[in-house]
Specification:
Layout (H helix, E strand, L loop, with lengths): L20 E3 L9 H7 L8 E3 L7 H5 L6 H13 L5 H13 L9 E5 L2 E5 L9 H19 L3 E6 L3 H10 L5 E8 L5 H8 L6 E7 L2 H13 L1 H7 L1 E2 L6 H17 L7 E6 L4 H11 L4 E8 L4 H8 L1 E3 L19 H8 L4 H14 L1 E3 L2 H10 E5 L2 H15 L5 H12 L10 E5 L7 H8 L21 E3 L2 H11 L1 H7 L1
Parallel strand pairs: 4-14, 5-6, 5-8, 6-7, 7-15, 9-10, 9-14, 10-13
Antiparallel strand pairs: 1-2, 3-4, 11-12
Helix pairs in contact: 3-4, 3-10, 4-5, 5-6, 5-10, 6-7, 10-11, 16-17
The structure holds pyridoxal-5'-phosphate.
Pyridoxal-5'-phosphate (PLP) binds next to helix 11.
Length: 490
């Protein structure tokens, strides 16, 4: 296997050698990109990471400026994909994926204050940043399955954003069926309609008589039911899928180059839940992007800011906030960072994850705490901070942000002191305000309207079954509706 220190510039001859992927827990087979794409979680319970980081030199980074987003994205993604998907095919998929966005720039930058910018990641079909990765992931999966002449069935639980993005991305897919489980009556009207109005026969939104935790437990149980798992060829698209992280590295490069990288350093503040989006920023830095600061923005669920401060990762109860996608106890992708920061010490990662499972906490090694304080800053926003930020931006810049993004602006502002004023501060805007009309109305007194292209959403016909929170009922429903089962019965 190739030995190459993380961050070291690649020899030109190594550029063409396909990257392999290793598990953070060190006990799963080494896979190539295609296999990682379909596997999701590693068999040892770990997460896949590349065995080395591809690196861009200053000239390559500068060349991203002024290019269409889809083109820059292909440059960033191609080294991770290697020969498993040809460059032509990848370009075609990227063009198609980002053509579904409602803004020609795909991920435009908007200035909100002196040297402070918002990176709008919400112009995709479901108005959240998850579309950026999911639109490409769906095309990659379909392509790879086509090549292998096989099918897959994707299942997922959603509390709102992920389900809609997955259904929207996979609707009409030739080789993938999607089943998304949401808690009946507990997602917003807009979120539910985004899942239940697509009419294609391969996408299924299913209401479950239960909570989000029940839906998540069902999905986990189905993955652990090996006979069922093999019969329907289960696959996952949650944020532990490596391909999603790769697709998110793209906008860090595109935004930084637009603001003057590599000749200027850039800081990013990232509304964080599962640590996927901010890990993509960390990856960009490893690949040579001159990032000054990566700020972890949390809401009142502040496990990551506390970890940075105390050196102990300690779960406690989740509180419900106006930024539900960040109401999280365990940030799954943090495991990828632990692995990197410990110099790829999978034994220590395994020990920490066992401890988390048994006692809900673990201690970081001293060296890892030091590295984490070097790599990240962090701040958490209370609900009153969120409301204050929304109102202030509306009056000072006539710019409307929704609560997740407001947490990002808050953290960016908290970390301004002591930072170089010449360094642009970019806040990732992870959702469109129209996705959270109730929260926005409570803060501003006005309900933001849906963008024109989504106006018909509220009148289109919905289609979804309501099923009992029972594994056998859910599995039967999947078996009756998944094409992979029909194939094998034929
Ligand atoms: C998913 C999501 C996040 C959190 O992203 P992670 O990659 O899980 O950290 C933040 N904001 C919104 C609107 C989201 O949908």
């Amino acid at each position: 296997m190739l030995q190459c220190r993380a961050g070291e510039a690649l020899q030109p001859s190594l550029r063409d050698v396909p990257l392999d992927y290793v598990s953070t827990r060190g006990e799963a087979p080494i896979l190539n990109f295609e296999e990682v794409l379909l596997a999701g979680l590693a068999r040892d319970g770990g997460l896949y990471v590349p065995e080395r980081w591809p690196r861009f030199d200053a000239g390559q980074i500068a060349s991203f400026a002024g290019r269409p987003f889809a083109e820059a994205a292909v440059e960033v993604i191609h080294p991770f994909v290697g020969t498993t998907v040809g460059r032509e095919a990848l370009s075609e998929m990227a063009r198609e994926a980002y053509a579904s966005f409602g803004h020609a720039a795909v991920t435009p930058l908007v200035q909100i204050d002196t040297n402070q910018f918002v990176l709008e990641l919400f112009h995709g079909p479901t108005l959240a940043f998850k579309d950026v990765a999911m639109q490409l992931l769906a095309r990659l999966m379909d392509h790879v399955l086509q090549k292998r002449a096989s099918r897959a069935t994707i299942i997922g639980a959603t509390s709102g954003d992920t389900g809609g993005a997955a259904i929207e991305a996979f609707r009409g897919s030739a080789n993938v069926d999607v089943f998304i489980f949401f808690p009946e009556g507990r997602v917003s009207d807009v979120q539910r309609r985004m899942m239940t109005t697509p009419g294609e026969a391969n996408v299924h939104a299913v209401a479950v008589r239960g909570t989000f935790d029940d839906c998540q437990a069902l999905v986990k149980a189905m993955f652990n039911h090996h006979a069922f798992r093999d019969r329907v060829q289960l696959s996952g698209v949650n944020s532990i899928n490596w391909a999603r992280i790769v697709a998110q590295i793209t906008y860090y490069f595109a935004a930084a180059a637009a603001l003057g990288a590599p000749h200027r350093r850039i800081s990013f503040s990232v509304p964080t839940g599962n640590f996927g989006d901010i890990f993509a920023g960390y990856a960009a830095k490893k690949m040579g992007l001159p990032i000054e600061r990566l700020v972890i923005a949390s809401n009142e669920n502040d496990i990551l800011p506390r970890t940075l401060e105390t050196g102990a990762y300690e779960t406690c109860g989740v509180v419900a906030t106006t930024s539900p996608s960040m109401d999280i106890q365990v940030s799954s992708n943090f495991e990828r960072y632990l692995y990197e920061a410990s110099n790829r010490d999978s034994v220590s990662v395994r020990r920490q994850m066992d401890s988390l499972k048994q006692s809900g906490r673990f201690e970081l090694d001293g060296k890892v705490v030091a590295a984490m304080r070097e790599d990240f800053a962090a701040a958490s926003a209370r609900e009153s901070d969120v409301a204050g930020i929304v109102r202030k931006l509306l009056s000072d810049a006539q710019y409307l942000v929704e609560p997740h993004t407001a947490c990002g602006v808050h953290a960016s502002n908290q970390n301004q002191a002591g930072s170089d004023p010449a360094v642009p501060r970019v806040v990732l805007a992870t959702a469109h305000p129209a996705k959270f009309p109730d929260a926005m109305e409570a803060i501003t007194g006005q309900r933001p309207g849906l963008p024109e292209r989504l106006k018909s959403l509220m009148s289109e016909e919905e289609r979804f079954p309501v099923l009992d929170n029972e594994q056998s009922v859910i599995e039967t429903y999947i078996e009756n509706n998944a094409r992979v089962v029909a194939d094998s019965n034929a």
